[in-house]
Every structure is written in C-alpha cells, then in structure tokens.
Amino acid sequence: xxxxxxxxxxxxxxxxxxxxxxxxxxxxxxxxxxxxxxxxxxxxxxxxxxxxxxxxxxxxxxxxxxxxxxxxxxxxxxxxxxxxxxxxxxxxxxxxxxxxxxxxxxxxxxxxxxxxxxxxxxxxxxxxxxxxxxxxxxxxxxxxxxxxxxxxxxxxxxxxxxxxxxxxxxxx
Length: 172
Fold this sequence. Notes:
mainly alpha, 0% strand, elongated
C-alpha cells in the first residue's frame, strides 16, 4: 500500500502527459500556463495569509488571548464552559496550528477524559479555521466584500463550542 501512495503522483503525471499527447496538445505549454495561474493565485492570497499569520503571532505572544479569555470568563462560567477551553475557542477560527498547540496543553494539563479535554477535542475537531479559509478562498477568487460569510462562519464556530459543552454534559 505504501508503494501505491508513492507511485500515485508520478502515475498521474504520466497519465496527464499521455492524454495530452493523445489529443495532440502541447503538454509543456499547458503545464507552464497552469503553473503561471497557480503563481498568480499564490500572489493574490499571500498578503491575506501574511497578515493572518502575523496577527496570530501577536495574539499568542502578547497574552491578549488570555486577557480576552479572562474578560469573558464570567459569561462562560455561567454557561458551564471550562475556562481552560476558552483560549482554544478564541484561537480556533484564526489558526489551526495554534489551536492544536492549545489542545495539546489542555489534554496534558486536564487529561483527555476530563470534561475540558473532551470539550476541547470536539471544538478542535468540529470547528473551522474560519479566517484562514476565508482568506484563502476569497483571496483566491478576488472577493473584496465578504458580506455575511464572516458572521455566519463565526456563528457556526460558536455553535460548535456550545454543542460541545452540551454533548459532553449529556455524556454523548
């Protein structure tokens, strides 16, 4: 099975070149045009991605994420939402890698079978890196006005967090 995975990409490239030759198309020119389109897409997405990565670094290193978690903790405590999971909930829409690091800390500190560990696992698995996805897809498509996409996606992320608490409390 490992050999199949390693051979899949070269086989796909060979099949594509053979199909182009069979149709009497210039495979190299088509390849270079596709590569140019790919680079244009990368250049359109790069500013958004650079800004997003910078913002995540600033949030993580400045302690702003922890301060925000402390600020909203009275509301989350009333909802039965563990304080340990709040930084994950705030970071997940911004950074998948950062969210995984926070999840690892929660699992190491609270335990995988604790309520906080189970809620954090659901939030990390069910949530989306909203701003990353929007930056990539809208940046690639050249969309400037995101309209209702950001609020709708953030509401979905919030809903995942609420239902994670409900699911763990119900023992699901």
